[in-house]
Amino acid sequence: MITCSAPGKIYLFGEHAVVYGESAICCAVELRTKVHVEKSNDILIESTLGTTGIDYEIHPYVSYAIEKMQRLTDITGVRIRIESEIPVGSGLGSSAAVTVASIQALNHLYECGLSLEDIARTGHEIEKMVQGNASPTDTYVSTMGGVVMIPQRKQLPLLKCPIVIGNTNQFSSTKELVGNVANLRSEFPTIIESILFNIGQMSMIAEKFVHEGDYMTIGKLMNVNQGLLDAIGVGSAELSSLVYAARNSGAICAKITGAGGGGCIISLADDNTAMTIAKAIEDAGGEAIITKNTEEGVRLEPLNG
Ligand code: PMV
User: Fold this and answer.
1) Number of domains, the chain
2) 116-150 tens-digit pLDDT
């Protein structure tokens, strides 16, 4: 049996602006999806969603991963088991992680020789097939790991502080939110374009502080980024409630991560405040996860992993 895992991701800066070619800073977080694969008589995919064969409704990402790999090698029977720590549909990149981990697990099992670049590209093709449109960010960050400036694909140093995620557990449709921003931009081009430009500038300015490990200044900028996300209409009462719960309980900063509308917020903490912030998020009705960023993208797990 082979086991591979891949991480989820958060946006420190730049969601929505990146759709218009501006810069963003994303990082992989230590919440992983594990995919176990072994050769078998039939094709079987097992997850909390159920046990199926190739099934584009229930297991679309894994089914397309098998289909793609069948172009490279003869896959007639394989058992695939998925275990995930990444909440589904919350903007933390769960679909990219399962896709990337599945491709890499099959790549190892059948010795196909795909490079990380191949895996990131194939993963993005699969996300586009399932979602109609998808940015390459999630699959790239999940494959490569680390803190990544996009679209430049530049690796930045890791943040050493704890990251507390607050999940509203409310559904967020990236497609719908991206569409809403596009409509607002058509209605008020001068205003919205300058906000998106300024969000992009924030990533450029923050790069230096990420290099210096200056979390207070990174935090100040992330809070400004949050204000601009609210300005373009991707906030919600629940997201704001978690943002303020985190900030008022000692977080360095707090902002939405990803498309907004629902989904998650992230906050930067220190070792003394992470638990307090997590509790404040829970008291405000969210689900808290304390994590950190990771330089490890998709990886082969040890045999008993
Ligand atoms: O919520 P997510 O993880 O799907 O992130 C969406 C990020 C956007 O910038 C809003 C859209 C995109 O494709 O980059």
Assistant:
1) 2
2) 999 999 999 999 999 887 789 999 999 999 999 99
Domain match, 102 and 242 both:
no
| Burial letters 162-187, b for 16+ CB under 10 A, else e | bbbbbbbeeebebeebbebbeebbee
Q: Do 184 and 103 sit in the same domain of this protein?
A: no
152 shares a domain with 168 = no
pLDDT of residue 304: 64
User: Which of 52-56, 87-91, 237-241 shows the lowest per-residue confidence on average (mean pLDDT)?
Assistant: 87-91
In ligand 1, the atom with minimum distance to the C-alpha of 9 is 3
Report the atom number in ligand 1 closest to the C-alpha of 257. 1
Q: Which of 133, 156, 179 is the last residue of a domain?
A: 156
In this structure, the residues whose C-beta lies within 6 A of any atom of ligand 1 are 15-16, 18-19, 91, 93, 135, 137, 174, 178, 258-259, 263
Q: Residue with the nearest Cα to atom 11 of ligand 1?
A: 16
CA–CA dist 206, 217 (Å, integer): 8
User: What distance in angstroms lies between residue 15's CA and the mean position of ligand 1's atoms?
Assistant: 6
Q: Which of 26, 127, 135 to mutate to test the pocket of ligand 1 (most atoms within 8 A of CB)?
A: 135
Closest residue by Cα to residue 30 from 289, 290, 294, 297: 294
What are the catalytic residues? 138
Range of the domain at 264: 163-291
- Average pLDDT for residues 86-91, to the nearest whole number? 89
pLDDT at 134: 78
Overall average pLDDT of the 200-210 stretch: 98
Burial (CB count <10 Å: 0-12, 13-18, 19+), residue 76: exposed
Same-domain check for residues 261 and 277:
yes
Task: Give me the pLDDT at residue 132, please.
Answer: 80
